[in-house]
Design goal:
The protein has two domains: 216 residues, TIM Barrel, CATH 3.20.20; 79 residues, no CATH class. Helix content is 37%, strand content 10%. The two termini are 42 Å apart. The chain is α/β, with parallel strands linked by helices. The strands form two sheets. Strands 1-2-3-4-5-6-7 form a seven-stranded mixed sheet.
Amino acid sequence: MAQLDVRHKLEILADAAKYDASCASSGTAKRDSRGGKGIGSTEGMGICHAYAPDGRCISLLKILLTNSCIFDCHYCVNRKSSNVRRARFTAKEVVDLTLAFYKRNYVEGLFLSSGIIRSPDYTMEQIVEVARSLREDHDFRGYIHLKTIPDADPELVRLAGIHSDRVSINIELPTERGLKRLAPEKDGQRIEAAMADVAHAIDDAADATRYKHAPRLAPAGQSTQMIVGADSATDSDIVLRASSLYGRYKLRRVYYSAFSPIPDASAVLPLRRPPLMREHRLYQSDWLMRFYGFQPQDVVAAAGPTGMLPLDIDPKLAWALKHRERFPVDLNRAPKEMLLRIPGLGVKAVNAILASRRLRRLRLDDIARLTVSIARLRPFIVAEDWRPTLLADRADLKPLVAPPREQLELFG
């Protein structure tokens, strides 16, 4: 490992970091280096691509400090017993790489995680040193996201928050049962205690901002990630756990990562990865709870008795088909919270409806201009010139509103 040059280390440790999905770069404070001070910026147009809420593509240098680890989690490609090539950066090498990539306009920030070497405290010290050196020695003002370690000293985690824009602690698996089975060296209660400590530290730092020189702590908040499909947890289990984490620790995001088979996998792991569409449906459910007013119980209802969300239709449509008594909805009279429940209508479309109906009664043609497919909306809405008298009670409604299946092209 000592004989590897920086380029070979980068090849190994960038590849090892690809399994971590939680590297969005939104919600942080705005900083730049205009005026000749500092280097870097948290703004601008987008070697990991993340997306801000406004759709901008943002590139981050996404690497591990090391892929060596003292833990032996079954689902992790970097576990102690895994037969993979190991590498390790020094803190200075990560700093130099980040600056070099930024100056070449390759990236706008850094996403840094690590396997655990020697001890959680030692590893956390190295991670913090990278961020400290970038901020204090080089006045770097770009985006920094640090993965923190649950068992590390809380003071080290606090320092990580001071020097970074976002921190995250992976909850790993949706259930305590799954964690004990696949990662027996980790403790779900300790992980959540660490998340609670970060949440309290962020709140305390926010209260102290009335003082001019009080440091900000992780202005983009904290996030976490759950592995989907490595254990027997259902979509309902995952959604309920995510909702609990959002409520208790004020998380900015919960990320879902479909389990991927790894080399020399343990016998307790599934032989096949779950459908990627399952991960997508969980993200859609997460979006419904965060922006559409859905409650976790609504998503559980959409999943049905099996606890699994349907893969052929989105969760919003699944919920609507299970609650036919709530439809059709009068677009000219219904409150915003009910308009947001209509399949096929997004937040922007609903806001446009609310603004337009103050001026006139909306017709079906008006709604057609706000959506991709008006045919999918017809069974669920009432407009000035439309009432679904024949569609509303049809038992075979799902085939009419579900998206058509498409044949994929091999070279498309």
